[in-house]
Every structure is written in C-alpha cells, then in structure tokens.
Amino acid sequence: MKLSVLLGESRASLAEAGIDDAALDARVIVEHFSGTSRTDAIGRPDMAIDPRAVAATRDAIARRAAGEPVHRILGFREFYGLKLFLSAETLEPRPDTETLVDAVLPWLRRRVAAGGACRLLDLGTGTGAIALALLAEVPQATAVGVDLSADALATAGRNALENGLSERFSAIRSNWFEAVSGRFDAIVSNPPYIESREIATLQREVREFDPARALDGGPDGLDAYRTIAAQAAAHLEPDGLVAVEIGHAQKRDVTHLFERSGFRLVEARSDLAGRDRVLVFGRN
C-alpha cells in the first residue's frame, strides 16, 4: 500500500468515528507504525509500506476509533523533554503538569547552589514524570517516588533507567507517607483530585483508559490533599516546600487545608489555559 493511501484511509476511519483532530491522530499513528515521517508524506507519498506495518497501523487506528488515546496506543508520551513509557496503572502525563515542574525548578536550583544537593519526594509518582523531569534538570538532586501500585513503580523505574536517571531515583510502594522515612527538601504531587461523582462525566479517553485510582479524589476531591497537608511536615526539612497540582476550582479549599496544618501559600500558578493548576507551600 502507498503511504498516501494509508494516510487517507486512516484519516477517514477516525473522522467517521467522530475523533477530534482525526488528521493529526492519523498522522501520528501512521508515522509511528510505518516508520515514516512528515517529510516522507510530502516528498514520497507513493512509497510502499510493508504489509505488516499496514496491519499494525490498521489495528492502532481501530483502537483509536474505539476511544483509546493515541499515546496509550503508542505506549509512551513526551513530558518535559523526556520519553516516558506508560502502563495500565499509570496516569498519562499531560502538559498542564509541566506547570508544577516549572514552579519547583527555580527553587531547586537555588537550593543546590546554596547547599550542593537536594532530596525530593514524589507522592503518587505514576510514570515518575514529575520527579524525573526535575532530576533531569537538576543533576545534584535525588528523588524517591512513592506509589501504591506495583505496576506504576515498575514503570517509573523503567523510565528512570531509559532516561539515564536510575542512579538518582528510587521507588517505594507506600500508601502516601506510610512507608516513607526521613526528611526531604521538597515534596511534590499530582494526586487524584476529581470528585467521585464526576468520574462518569469525564471524556471517554480519560474515563475508560486512565486508572480510576489516579483520578478519584473522594466525595469532594480533597481526600489526598487532607493526607498530604496533615503529614507533610513530619517529612519536610524546616525550610522545604510542598508543591501540588490541583483542579481548577480547588485553590481556596486546598490552601485552607494546608494553612490549618501550619503551611503558608508561597506561590500559585495557572496552566496553559489560564486556570489555577499548581500551589506551592512553605512551612510557617
């Protein structure tokens, strides 16, 4: 089959299935499974595609038409310049979470400039995205990633290895702080924060393919923040910070939880759409 024909067929299948950005998704899938590029599509539209690649592409297109997200099909996603592999029990890292990395990074750089090193704790690490992005940018830092899922911990460990960061990253299985010991310069987390009743209303790509445990924040979406706010001080250096991702309407409630536990709001950041996304706290 010619490349141009495969691209056209793929676009048509996704458009018929009602997939937003059908053309883009088709191009990404075709390029990945056929080993071609945008340059090939423009300059060599008649190039022949191996039948096995055609079959793999058609299978992937069928999965996308059924609602599975593109990056779940590919098995990886780029995050802060890193290639991160996904698994069934990891949340797909999204660009909005890079806001958390951006918020913490300048502080970490000042920390290592003053003290020579720093130690991070990533609660609910999933793919390891936040911790690994920070380690990649701050060579003097080390990190511990915590997750309740063995699958997620294995994936985070693989991502650390694949990105050359395994010597500075360790993963432990724990229900939040239960198995965590010692103190850290920074505690970071993108916890589940969606209200339980809202899960059924999420986009199909999220509702059916992201792990529910990484989404469901309890009846009011604040369960994880209560735990983090109540227990963070026992694991934080006196002048350390806590940075958390939040839902766009949770700034006030999450801030109150941390203030009641002896923290003060140091910084609030918005995401790419201008919505409240990250809160950074220091100890009083």
UniProtKB/TrEMBL annotation:
Q: Which reaction does it catalyse?
A: L-glutaminyl-[peptide chain release factor] + S-adenosyl-L-methionine = N(5)-methyl-L-glutaminyl-[peptide chain release factor] + S-adenosyl-L-homocysteine + H(+)
Q: Name one GO molecular function term.
A: peptide chain release factor N(5)-glutamine methyltransferase activity
The cross-references to InterPro entries, in alphabetical order and at most eight, read: DNA_methylase_N6_adenine_CS, HemK-like, N5-glutamine_MTase, PrmC_N, RF_methyltr_PrmC, SAM-dependent_MTases_sf, Small_mtfrase_dom
EC assignment: the record states 2.1.1.297
Q: Which residues form the Release factor glutamine methyltransferase N-terminal domain?
A: 7-75
Residues binding substrate are N190, P191, P192, Y193
Q: What keywords does the record list, in alphabetical order?
A: Methyltransferase, S-adenosyl-L-methionine, Transferase
PROSITE patterns registered for this protein in UniProt = N6_MTASE
Cite a single GO BP annotation.
Answer: methylation
Q: Which residues bind S-adenosyl-L-methionine?
A: G124, T125, G126, T127, G128, D147, W176, N190
Any idea where the Methyltransferase small domain is? 119-198
Role noted for this protein: Methylates the class 1 translation termination release factors RF1/PrfA and RF2/PrfB on the glutamine residue of the universally conserved GGQ motif.
- Please state which protein family the record places this protein in: Belongs to the protein N5-glutamine methyltransferase family. PrmC subfamily.
> NCBIfam families under this entry?
hemK_fam (TIGR00536), RF_mod_PrmC (TIGR03534)
Q: What is this protein called?
A: Release factor glutamine methyltransferase
Q: What species was this sequence derived from?
A: Mesorhizobium marinum
